[in-house]
Amino acid sequence: MVTITVTESVRALLEHALGRFIGGAQPPAAVLLSVAGRTYDAATLSDAYNAVAAASRSGVRAFLDLSTSHLQASTREMWTESFDAEHFPTPTWCGETGWLLFVPASNDAWDHVCGSELPAIFDHARAAGAEYVRFDEGAPVVEALPIFEDDGEPESDAFWDAAMAAEAEPAAPFRFTPDDDAFIQAMQVQNFDATQIARLLANRTGMHCSRTDVAVRLADLATAEALHG
């Protein structure tokens, strides 16, 4: 952390410029702030702040720029060959090299069949303050999310390192919700193994989930389905 000490007169000037946040009386007209050889008075700083505040309300939206390698090959193929914008569970724009998806407030409405890796990506986007995710071939990768090869297997070293670390840490058994059950069953259908599912579920919920938790829960669900149909 960096601490910057200012004089009382500069503090008054900054309080005026940022008055919408912290308040402050109008500083004397003679008070000036000099930064890197340029001088600013209260009116100049206040105008600059007001312009930034106005821009934040002008419809500018934040998006997470993400490589399409964070999508499974099966998801990319399905979206390309079978989906147009109206097929997605969230507002989506389809382009020649990728997709722009609106980030929902929660993952409840997302249909995991449309891409079981998306809830973890939405969680990451919300944590970053993004309102949209843009998937593009030339966009950057994020080490916190799995990167898929064409056969659908995660190839990121960070993915496996985090999975092994999570498995080594003792923790209370994961408490599965009905939405979690639907999520892990959908990923099992897409041939994710228990380690991969545990990692994605941990990213999605922000809670520790082990490979054993997932394997036991899938077995319980399969038993219940066999007994009750």
Major sheet description: 4 strands, mixed
Mean pLDDT: 77
Low-confidence runs of at least 5 consecutive residues: 156-160
Which oligomeric state applies? single chain
* H-E order: HHEEHEHEEHEHHHH
Beta-strand percent range? 5-15%
Structural class, by secondary structure, is alpha+beta
> How much is the radius of gyration in Å?
24 Å
How many strands in all? Answer: 6
Protein name: DUF5983 domain-containing protein
InterPro entries: DUF5983
Organism: Methylorubrum populi (strain ATCC BAA-705 / NCIMB 13946 / BJ001)
Structure, described:
The protein has 229 residues and is α+β, with helices and mostly antiparallel strands. It has two domains: 8-55, no CATH class; 63-228, no CATH class. 45% of the residues lie in helices and 11% in strands. The chain has helices at 8-17, 19-22, 42-55, 73-82, 118-127, 157-168, 178-189, 194-205, 211-228; strands at residues 32-35, 38-41, 63-67, 92-94, 98-102, 132-136. A four-stranded mixed sheet has the order 3-6-5-4, with helices on one face. Strands 1-2 form a two-stranded antiparallel sheet. β4 and β5 form a beta hairpin. α1 packs parallel to α3, α7 runs antiparallel to α8 and α8 (194-205) packs across α9. Residues 156-160 have low confidence and may be disordered.
